Input
Amino acid sequence: MIDSDGMAPWEICGMCHSADGISVMSKFPILAGQKAPYLKSQILDFIAGGRLNDGGQMSSIVTEIEASDIDSIAEYFAGLPGTVTSLIVDSGVDEEVYQQGKALFEEGRSGVVACRTCHNDGHSTAPRLQAQHAAYIRKQLNDFKHGRRVSKRATAMTTIAKLLNEDEIASIAIYLHSSGSYEVNVTP
Output
């Protein structure tokens, strides 16, 4: 249990995800500019025990969140500037790996639908992935693939991830991390 007296509800989350929503540790996803409905659904999944692939950290910390604060937490992080430039990988990215990841994300391949089919601004319950930590994306795809991340909303991802090999997972993660920043238009 943490001493959260005097803290704004989002500050509890900011301890790991950073107050600006741009976590410095790849274990913690970047929340700045993320979609509020997605953030809310994930908090609720952790509270309900429907998501357990975090080593217990989120499952524990969500006990500190009041149900009445979930919307304001999600809206706080969604309202942060979604431009992430400090994490973009520069010329150190292997061009072939980057292009493979881009092709899978944008076009898919035989038997695998393109990631952008759901991971776009029009799909409120699928997260934005551009500029996310590569290690975090790799872990999540592997957790879906190996049945460690499950929920009612994860069925499609579990099916898709099982069709990806390790090289494809790595290339998608590298592409998304280094694909550049994304701009989020926030409507108050």
